[in-house]
Amino acid sequence: MAYKQSIYNVFYEKNNIQYLWNTYSGALIQLDESGQKYLKLYTGQNDGSTEFKMLSSNGFIVDDRIDELGRIIYYEKQEMYTMQSDSISVVIALGMGCNYNCEYCFQSSCDKSSYMDEITAAKVVEYICNKIRQNPSIKRLNIKWFGGEPLLYTKTLEIISKRIIKVTDESGIEYSAGVITNGYFLDRKMALKLRSYRVTKVQITIDGMLEEYCKSKGTQSESFYTVINNIKAASDILKITIRLNIPNNDSNMAIATTDYLLMELNLLSKIQIYFAYLRDYSKDEKKAREAYKIYAHNYCTWLDHIIKRYGNSMINGSIPVRKRTSCGYIRMRNICIGTRGEFYKCEHCFGDENSIVGDVWNDKYYNKMEFTYATTIEQRTSKSCLKCSFLPICMGGCANDYLNGLIGQDCDAFKDIQFKLKLLEGGIRV
What we know:
By secondary structure, the protein is α/β, with parallel strands linked by helices.
């Protein structure tokens, strides 16, 4: 039997030490001189050596008959089109109104008066419960509450939650939920209420320290301190992740905000924080790539600081892993439900009439829009992407970006971040 080196092997050298990462298997090793020489001279045979056994068992050397790209495409199609899965994920927009006016909000064009009424909420419950009954394989259901500011619409959240909890409990299905919120209404009483409705995870956006926060969100200092106090009050009830949406992706402000939350407020080990990319949704390719390069540099600066000061626990959830699809919501079984019960394939599309792919009254339309989102990587990516050794952890990037002609990131900068995170997972700082 013949063998070959995997096309998903990534080599990285730092301080005269060479590392090898296979982005498909997830294995990471440090190569000594013997290992480097072995791979350089490898002839494609099973020679029974220790090197061969280690490299082949970790996916660095694979059966020559395997079409590695074809295998990825196969699993992507399987994951994308199967309806008989053990899990379903649903995003539900309760209402598009918000108490803030964030400069960067992608929902600024939405109808802020739009909200889900009780009739629609009941139909949403009926739709989800029917999907559960139709699929006996389902073991887990997750709902992400979305808006606008979803905590302005807790009455609707309660209506849907009570009925979903009853059905999932009776069916022996594990139900969990999360919410994306600005945190203004998340006091301790609200946190306990959410917990009673199986909400366990909360993402709160913080846009920097007081001055930057107020300017970015179009609000006053009272709002900043209300949110800060709410984070402290709810941190022992809910799993809180802080998304840093820092203007200009400034690393100094990201560091200052992180230190404020973790040290001054004593929230270390009580919350998670990640420094998000605050995007410019320009279609200017050069401008978009340069913006991401700046973010990548600043992200690594912030990352070096938090690892040095707080340890590797702060990167939990950020480690690159192999994906089967670029996004969970391009899978046919998962859906985003708007305030009128309409379906979308991306939460960024809420309110866009041209992006509707179905509704709770008629189910999926199986229209051109849905199948456009369901294009596979060989259809929506360039030939260079298909040959890239990072493909298993990227899968061609965001499908919504592709459809709108947007450049989501600079590939080289993205790769630098991913390798740095992977090495950190292995306890290696670079």
